[in-house]
Amino acid sequence: LLRGPSKDIINEIDRNLQDAMAVTRNVFLEPSLSPGGGATEMAISIKLLENLSKIENIQQLPYKAVSDALEIIPRTLIQNCGKNPIRILSKLRSEHSKGNYTMGIDGDTGDIVDMKDYGIWEPEVVKQQSIKTAIESSCLLLRIDDIVSGIRKDERK
């Protein structure tokens, strides 16, 4: 039973309640958590770069592109705090290279902190789905680009 001053507010409260119940359900069904603050994204980015030397030639490009794309999350957190992203990202890369994979960006100050100590965790299933969706969308765009460029070649003939 929900009550409120207007139908719009009641609908908004209902949507918020549904979202909260869905998050709770997801945590019970998939209890794995990942550190927040861009720590997970940076850890994946570092691992991709470390494994880049094992891959030859042009096949390195997608891995490098995904690695760069994943660094956008901590970079955005740093920029939103008004800090210098180049300097702080370098320090964060250094921390992750040392094996401190729970180090991330404090969203209030823009400093590098241990997400485990701060208690900032995100559902792992959400991270996985976000990355899958981003990669699938990129593949779809590349496929569409191939089709369009193929049509243009046919038109020239």
TrEMBL record:
It comes from the Eukaryota. Gene3D superfamilies: GroEL-like equatorial domain, TCP-1-like chaperonin intermediate domain. Transmembrane segments: none annotated. It holds the Pfam family Cpn60_TCP1. GO terms for molecular function: ATP binding; ATP-dependent protein folding chaperone; unfolded protein binding. Keywords: ATP-binding, Chaperone, Nucleotide-binding. The keyword Hydrolase does not apply. This is CCT-gamma. It comes from Ascoidea rubescens DSM 1968.
